[in-house]
Amino acid sequence: MKNRDLSFWLFLAPVLVAILIVVIYPLLTGLYYSFTNWDGLRISKFVGLDNYIKLFHDKEFGDAFWFTIKFSIAAIIVINIIGLGLALIVTQHIKTSSFLRTVFFMPNLIGGLILGFIWQFIFTKAFASIGESIGIEGLQGWLSTTETGFWGLVILTSWQMAGYVMIIYIAYLQSVPEELIEASQIDGANRFQRFRNITVPMIAPAFTVSLFLTLSNSFKMYDQNLSLTNGGPFNSTQMVAMDIVKTAFTENSMAYAQSKAMIFFVTVAAISLLQVYYNKKKEVEL
């Protein structure tokens, strides 16, 4: 850093100022508000840890947090399996690979709210019609129970994010040296052995990036949750982001909502950093 000249800092200054204004200042301000009784307009007193103590006795927030964790685990696994599978398909030198990449990526271009309403129609209308015509009761009444609402959110998120994750895996799959693949074929390694012992270690950085993105996106999801289930039935599919917004703008408990947001931020940051650290460590070992 000692060798950096003035031009370096001049180019860097706008970014640092933007981070300070958009990220650091709001974070510190929100932390301060979480120790007060701020109602969105004024602060009449400093309440210390009262909001945090109340938070840990809030069953609705606890249920939302647990539902978010379960959803994130399922979504991360499904999205990355499908994304990697699609990447393997479109890197097989088939004639329609470019077309398939476009088709698989397109759902990611649809907004979360619109996507939620589309899948709400599919689950409630299309599934019900199919179930009625072929006599499968399980397809009727989707999104009316916690279990179907849970898997509805997983399906929606996987359909939207799999194509995006596919692009990341494609970038690393195309960087795997062909010489290693050809040498392993000469040595008699089958397709699964080549994938396990050559491809997976070579694309290890892709797992780090993809897991980080899917983890943070799954934990912070709000639009799809709002438009698909709106937290129903009886708030059983309500995720943390929706619970925070509801506390702030429906119950008008801004300071309490901010305390929830701070706990949420710390949790997501800790899990994300641990995941990146663990995956980076595995990359070094490989």
UniProtKB/TrEMBL annotation:
The chain crosses the membrane at residues 7-28, 64-90, 102-122, 150-173, 194-215, 261-278. SUPFAM superfamilies: MalF N-terminal region-like, MetI-like. GO terms for cellular component: plasma membrane. It is a multi-pass membrane protein. One of its GO terms (biological process) is transmembrane transport. Belongs to the binding-protein-dependent transport system permease family. This is ABC transporter permease. It comes from Peribacillus loiseleuriae.
